Amino acid sequence: MRPTLVVDETIRSITPADQSWRAQAVQRIHTLTMPTWALGRLLDLAADLAAMTRSLAPPVERRAVVVMAGDHGVVAEGVSAYPSEVTAQMIHNFTRGGAGINVLAEQARARVVVVDVGVAGDLSDLARSGAVQSRRIAPGTRNIARGPAMTREEAGRALAIGLEVAATQSPDTDLYATGEMGIGNTTPSSAIVALLCGADPREVTGCGTGIGEPARARKAEIVARAIAVNHPNSADPIDVLAKVGGYEIGALAGLILGAAAARKPILIDGFISTAAALLAQGLCPAAADYMIASHQSVEPGHRVALARLGKRPLLDLGLRLGEGTGAALAMPLVEAAVRVLTRMATFEEAGVTGDKT
Length: 357
What we know:
CATH class of the largest domain: Alpha Beta
Number of domains: 2
Strand order of the largest sheet: 3-2-1-4-5-6
Mean pLDDT: 97
Radius of gyration: 20 Å
CATH superfamily of the largest domain: Nicotinate-nucleotide-dimethylbenzimidazole phosphoribosyltransferase (CobT), large domain
Structural class: alpha/beta
Low-confidence stretches: none
Strand content: 5-15%
Largest sheet: 6 strands, parallel
CATH architecture of the largest domain: 3-Layer(aba) Sandwich
Order of helices and strands: HHHEHHEHEHEHHHHHEHEHHH
Number of helices: 16
CATH topology of the largest domain: Rossmann fold
């Protein structure tokens, strides 16, 4: 089956979160031994989870951070403080357990799944050992400042890879989290956000790996040039992905759609993951019902993208690492929301007099 047909079929299967389950959760929350909505947004999250999972005991114990990896031809324009070789080097670090996401995922009791969608470096040893899933489309995208990142067929393949990973992980996963690795990937993400949010590239382009202000200004010019050179159709998310995106960004969008099709919550990490979430929302608005914004990063475009998704982040810690680290940090909050919904006593159960107003 052609990748685009698989994507279309999945999109047709996605239904909005069930508001009747949300209402049941809200009703239960109002009976719990605390003043009305005293735990604030934690209770909003509990109601969201009930609606997503169609359950008053949303399962969230089995957790996976899926790290999609790919390289970017636009690195040749000097948009990053690091060379492309770092992508493959960091993936080796992931498999040895030495990266930030490994440390935080272990704390959150989540496994880390690494998928090579388009890394330029040699990962054949990791693929043979099973440490990395090899779904490589090509060894990196083409330079978006000079032409399209990929073909439309490749964009469809990237989305389909994300769907396939979601499906294969689904039997052992209750709660997904997005992660990524790809030197230079804040540049295509800035282009995606500018296009899908109708924003000025200068306003949504940040410092990425830590470049200074002169380099950031030049990076914004490169984002604007990529848009001008490629003329992406902002009403067509697949065209946007093909013209100015990245293989790992497309795969993350597919992962998000796959989680939504399975009616499972997915924590969206930082700026790159949120660019992918915008693509998923553009392809299927109902998919946004299953997204949880984990945190607010320091990238200026992240706030713009979250506003377009209609999401408020759970955390604001000044993060800019990526890898899924913010999503892993938010996992205990998801668990806390479920525990309040399922384990806290009602006024009747506790023999406590309730609110009489």
